[in-house]
Design a protein that fits this description.
single chain, five-stranded mixed beta sheet, 4 helices, STAS_dom_sf
Length: 123
């Protein structure tokens, strides 16, 4: 089981080895950086990390940086949508990463999710 870095929100679902989820503060906001592939096996860890971060960030914004995600399937989309129903909703940074933005657009979720092109824009 991966060790939790000091200051990171506790996770009950550890991510698999092909997904790294880290947390840091930027201008008061809690930024969740996701690196790797989000699939059926790793999506629960993403959802868990996002909802935990949203709760810990409140009332400050929670920003989820997906710019280094190389694969996102339907399970990942479901995790993003489920986390976006959490109050307050996370701000998702997707830039022009076609591995992430294309599935979101195809599923018609680009209007349902709070999408930004950079962390600075999301702030």
């Amino acid at each position: 089981m991966p060790q939790q870095a000091l200051g990171e929100p506790a996770r009950t679902t550890p991510p698999p080895e092909w997904l790294t989820i880290t947390h840091r503060r930027v201008s008061g906001a809690l930024v969740v950086e996701v690196v790797g592939e989000v699939d059926m096996e790793s999506a629960p860890a993403l959802l868990d990390a996002m909802t935990t971060a949203i709760d810990q960030a409140h009332p400050d914004p929670c920003i989820v940086d997906l710019t280094r995600v190389g694969f996102l399937n339907a399970a990942g989309l479901t995790a993003l949508l489920d986390a976006s129903r959490h109050t307050p909703r996370p701000r998702l940074v997707v830039d022009s990463n076609s591995c992430v933005i294309r599935p979101i657009e195809i599923a018609g979720l680009d209007n349902a999710l709070k999408l930004y092109h950079s962390i600075e824009e999301a702030l």
